[in-house]
Amino acid sequence: MTKSSQTTPIDFASVDKTAMPRFEVVKQQITREILDGTWAAGTVLPGETAMAQQFGVAVGTVRRALADLVQEGLLSRRRRTGTVVTGRMPKHSMRFFYDYFRLHDKEGKLQRSQPTSLSLERRAASADEAEKLEIPKGSEVIAYHRLRSVADRPIMHEIYLIPSALVPGFPERAEEVPEFLSRALAEDYHQRITAIREAVTAELATDEDARLLKLERPAAILRIVSVNYDQSSHPVLIATHWATTEGQLYINEIF
Fold it and tell me: Whole-angstrom Cα distance, residue 85 to residue 77?
């Protein structure tokens, strides 16, 4: 039997709505409620009018957001019932790739990782980095290093390299960087990532890999290097990830 949603209203007015369409912001809010477990599988969402009042937007905005989430598989429409949370995870979505990085357990279930900031520095780009980012050699870049854990177990560490010129006012300290970096890039700096190019290799863990991921050497890891592009096909950042596959699967299903 389905349950009725009884969440507290979200302070939509506190969300920066200038960098993306309002229906996208509504989609993100609804998605967080679902993936955080607030709206469990079988939950019946409030009506479109009620949700529009809750979010402070037009009914048409809510309708567009719900239609997208139905298409992605998070929601379904049921006659005489309404809009219901399916409990299924979306398999093909760029935004889910960036928020959850396609981390699955051995049974194939998508997992939510918890990031821990390690360091942040501003430095000159190397020749290779400058070429990939299409910036002059020696231009300043921000190198942000963090660790991802699932159930308190470290499974990946990663370095994001971003041209400083693209993100004026970017945090100076690692602990101030938002958890959902791609979302912050879109909302705060108008740098929306729409495509990626990845290179995946298998390597032996270095001393740093073993220390951060708590591995006994020798150990194999995946090294994933991705160049991330905006809607104009201009590179926005380079992300390098070092991941253990002990108990984890990396599944890439993006189009």
Answer: 9
Alpha-carbon span 114 to 210, nearest angstrom: 19
Q: What is the dihedral of CA 42, 72, 20, 129, to 10 degrees?
A: 120
Beta bridge partners of 3: 43
Can you tell me the distance from the alpha carbon of 184 to that of 176, in angstroms, rounded to the nearest whole number? 12
What gap in Å lies between CA 42 and CA 128, rounded to an integer? 50
| Dist CA 127 CA 58 (whole Å) | 49
Q: Is the model more confident about 184 or about 170?
A: 170
The maximal CA–CA distance of the chain, rounded, in angstroms, is 62
Q: Which residue has the tokens 């780009």?
A: 125
Q: CA–CA separation, 183 vs 178, rounded Å? A: 9
- Whether pTM > 0.70 for this model: the answer is no
Map residue 234 onto helix, strand or coil.
coil
- What pLDDT, on the 0 to 100 scale, is given for residue 105? 75
182-195 pLDDT tens trace: 878 888 898 888 88
User: Does pLDDT of 28 surpass 60?
Assistant: yes
